[in-house]
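Predict the 3D structure for this chain.
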Amino acid sequence: MLDGSDCVYHLAAWIGGIEHLHESKEAELKTLQSNLAIDTNVIRACAESKVSKFIYASSVSVYPSNVQRAINARFAEDDVAPINPDGGYGWAKLIGETQLDLAESLKSGIARISNIYGEYCKLGKTAHVVPALIRKAINYPTEPFIVWGDGTQTRNFIYIQDCVEALLKLEEHASYPPLKVNIANPETVTIRELAETIVSISGKNIRITYDPTKPVGPLSRIPDIRRAEKELGWKPATPLRVGLERTYEWAEQFINSSK
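Done. Predicted structure below.
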């Protein structure tokens, strides 16, 4: 099926928000096994079909989860030790990277992507935090605007267009051993700031409710993108509010057209 392909972009994965991936041991196991199977089959097929280049969508989840429990935790590409990735998803992504470390026939690029968002994202139960909060704002007051945690945890969000441009540049620099780069926006925000920005974009008088009993995942995972800037000549161009406005406009049209 892949015979004659010059480059494969491997973006397929079992993904979702915290509840979907990490709500129980069974969820962690399903996430781990599903992604291991996907990655193993795709990487093997590429090697057997003699694909020249391979771009792998990895994740900041490969970094030590115990370190991510600290405020202002920052990660450069070499900061994977001690090995302790974030749950089944993080383990699967790290093992996927390890397979590429061993795949001498493939020139690879590994993108450790941080919290991607944008148009055409999932808005339902498995949605990540940005589309989930946008959906709640659009549906408010029918759906309450509840934010998991107290809002102090921080994240770095990258707009889809910026991410795609980074992946295209990564293809140009695919190599063996694989080039590994963080793909993220250095603009760090708290979840509280994110929620307030989405409420502002909505133009509604929304009451934000914080639920500290819900799981929040890592407190901080700030990616260092200097290697991507140097090796790829890339940096994100879309400010968070601009990307959120574009995503909100799309989601509002999508949800209203589905009613």
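The mean pLDDT is 92.
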